Amino acid sequence: MDNNPTTGQCLCGAVKFRISGEFESFFLCHCSRCRKDSGSAHSANLFSSTAKITWVSGEANIKTFHLPGSRHMKSFCFNCGSALPISQPEVGFLAVPAGSLDSPIDIRPNAHICCSSRANWDEALASIERIDGLPG
Description:
This protein is mostly beta strands. The chain has one helix spanning about 30-40, and strands at about 5-10, 15-20, 25-30, 45-50, 50-55, 60-65, 75, 85, 85-90, 95, 110-115.
């Protein structure tokens, strides 16, 4: 990532944010909690211990769910449900859902993690048909 801030927003555009600083890691997590959060095969989150987030608009629209008895959290726009960053600057933690970003990033995923929890249908996906738009 260069010195230009990274920008992102929710689907409805109510919540907008800007991130200054570097991402240190990018993980695709297959744990059952992240699969439920994303509704997909895995979550895709970028992490930083030093980057800073600025909420440009809509901070009042952010809700955060903390799963009791765990460190698992998810922030989202209460209007459209889009996943949003979680910032805990007091402990040096920023997690950013990759899909929430509008800016290109130059970090690639470091690893698939929690693969022992992977969905049984998440196998050999590279071999299925690829369609550039919606199926017709």
